Amino acid sequence: MKKLELHSEIELVKRLINQDHFAFEVLFYKYKNKVKGFVLKFAPSQIDADDIVQKVFIKVWLQKEKLSIDKSFSAFLYTIAKNEIIDQLKSSVNRRIYFMGNNLIADLNIREQSDNTDEQLGLERKISELIHQLPERRKEIFELSRFGGLTYRQIAEKLEISENTVDTQIRKALKFLREELKIVRNNILLIIF
Description:
By secondary structure, the protein is an all-alpha fold. 78% of the residues lie in helices and 0% in strands.
């Protein structure tokens, strides 16, 4: 192999298409920091740039047959990175909607008794009040997850704690919310009957 071939993007892409692991590795090390810079420039801070880079190169390997030596490899990378950023942003928005919408009720194992909007708003207000009753650190972790859209890993890094601690605190918060809402529901039933 000629030394020039190692530095030729076209030659590396040809080899990658033919499942050459070494060519993939060379392209990875050549472009990983550029892709990370792209993500850091265009994505909000709650998105993990390293996670995006990893997903981009996994997709490159999985989609290597779609590569073309006539098209820019870096443009291909940036397109995948842009789509990953968009997917993570959508996921973050969906998590917030999930938390505050009807799905929270399902997540907390509460069955809705009616479609009354006032009752729904009352339930959401009660949930908000209960969240404020959580111990300060647990509340912070829970809100970063549910309202901030951060992953457990991102929360752990931000608060300098383990992912296991994040998971435990979120589980305890959900357990508390379920138990308290069950009490509220039982009290309502007692009043009605």
